[in-house]
Amino acid sequence: MNYYLGIDIGSATTDVVLVNEEKTIVDFGVIRTSPIHKENATRLTETILKKNRLSLKDIRYSIATGYGRYNVPFVSEAVTEITCHAKGILCFFPNVRSIIDIGGQDSKVIVCDESGNVKNFAMNDKCAAGSGRFLEVLAGVMNIPLSEMGQYSLKSEKAVEINSTCTVFAESEVISKLAMGVLPEDILSGVFNTLAKRVYALGKRFAYPGEIAFSGGVARNVGVAKQFECILETNLNIAVDPDITGALGAGLYSIEKYQKINNGDNEKVGMGNSEELRRFSHEFNSILARNPLGANE
């Protein structure tokens, strides 16, 4: 059995997905991203490989994606997260043609075809107000755990409009409304509505064709998902583990790329090639030697 790796280094989390040649998820892991990206990826990859009694020599090809994709020295190549998210989503939901993804530092809308090829996309990476970072700031201000904010917002009976589109000003506006005695759930509902409208506007010109999926860590927030469904007037497709969509897509793309390059020759190119394996193993082991497994946990 041949195995492939997809590694997604985002601003909030680092995700690694191990898939086999049958395009089945064998295992995956998610950890918080620290400033040293290559150590994040190496430690998590080592954990997954050991757990499944595998080593780098069992990996035929690997792709890194996400904003830290160029900082992983032991992968075969780096690919944009736009491409990988489309591939990953279609593995879960074959009928999806529009994808809303909200990560730690950006938000994007992707339109793809039936093969997962990107046809169009729009991205906001200039302002934190439409990202997971905005929700982290909000959780701190309101003293509500990030994981509970979505459910908390569903108690709202009267959402309060949040006018500020900047994280800094929105934070001040939220503090002001709390001081005025506005219920936290009403504030959250209003914030989530503002966020959803902001991200929806990114892809409005694409008209959101076909079924729509919501991916990224923010897709775990039921309050944000509800606001999108109200605006779009349809149910969203959300995976059980929406965080790993990019890493899964990178793993699946690894299979396609390896098969295309090698054209049936399993030893021509990739991590299974002895020369490549020696180079990858040297990089991999050097990082582990400087930062042993679990040293930062």
Automatic annotation (TrEMBL):
Coiled coil: none annotated. Its cofactor is [4Fe-4S] cluster. Signal peptide: none annotated. Pfam families: BcrAD_BadFG. Residues 5-253 form the ATPase BadF/BadG/BcrA/BcrD type domain. Keywords: Iron, Iron-sulfur, Metal-binding. One of its GO terms (molecular function) is metal ion binding. PANTHER family: BIFUNCTIONAL PROTEIN [INCLUDES 2-HYDROXYACYL-COA DEHYDRATASE (N-TER) AND ITS ACTIVATOR DOMAIN (C_TERM) (PTHR32329:SF2), BIFUNCTIONAL PROTEIN [INCLUDES 2-HYDROXYACYL-COA DEHYDRATASE (N-TER) AND ITS ACTIVATOR DOMAIN (C_TERM)-RELATED (PTHR32329). NCBIfam families: CoA_E_activ (TIGR00241). This is Activator of 2-hydroxyglutaryl-CoA dehydratase.
